[in-house]
Amino acid sequence: MLQDALFFPDRQTRVRAVALPAAIVAHAVALAVLAAAPLMRMGELPAIDVSNVIVVPAPPATPLPPPKARTGNPGARIKARRAPVAAADPWRLAPVAVPEGIAEEAGFGVDGMPGGIEGGVDYGADAGILAAIAGDSFFAPVGEPVEPVVRAAGDVKPPRLVKRVEPDYPALAREARIEGIVILEATTDVYGRVVNVRVLRPVPWLDEAAIAAVRQWVYEPLVINGRPRPVTFTVTVRFVLK
Q: Which domain holds residue 209?
């Protein structure tokens, strides 16, 4: 009797108990898929007409208020206006008297200076005061020596050389192995500068080089009786191959 009182579910009953919840879940999933299907469709978007776009301009900027005038500034300058000056009436001006003639001023004339020497003097310089002070040499032509040229001989010694420029050895003379002594005659001015050179004894291909060098030499001015004098003297230039 105890076995009759106990209840044992059979296998079919257990299958039904599991199938019912599974069916409910399957129906719920199917309903969700059907509801989301319209949202998942990819449709074409309508084209946008650009011509219908309206551009709205920005409003104009609000102008700034004008600056306030400064009041009570102690450093400001006040320009004073000048009162207009009334023009003088022409009829009130005094008339200007025009002289009938111009009086001659007393001064130097053909009659001479009062208190001078009657009849003038018979001495003086033809060229004026400068010629009387400096002498006729003041008006000597430019380029001509004021003093005559002195030749170095006897008691007159040649001037002392203070600046010497070595001559350039010509290339042709160097290749031809030419050596020698060129004798020149040079003339200096009152400042000791060489102003004239001439050849006394030439050496082929060496004369021009010797003359070009001597023209650049400077001598001490020759002074005779306290005055510088131009002088002419002999110069020798030696060319030696090394």
A: 150-239
**Host H or E run for residue 129:** helix 129-134
pLDDT of 134? 46
Q: What is the dihedral of CA 199, 200, 203, 207, to 10 degrees?
A: -10
Condensed to tens digits (0 to 9), the pLDDT of residues 170-188 reads: 999 999 999 999 999 999 9
- Distance in angstroms (rounded) separating the CA atoms of residues 190 and 171: 36
Mean residue pLDDT of the chain comes to: 73
DSSP 21: H
CB 202 within 8 A of CB 176: no
Q: What is the pTM of this model?
A: 0.42
For residue 70, which amino acid is it?
Answer: R
Residue 162 to residue 218: CA distance in whole angstroms: 6
What is the pairing mode between strands 180-188 and 218-219? Answer: unpaired
Residue 196, in any domain of the structure: yes
How many domains in the chain?
1
Check residue 2 and give its pLDDT: 45
d(C-alpha 81, C-alpha 78), whole Å: 9
- For residue 184, the domain's CATH number is 3.30.2420.10
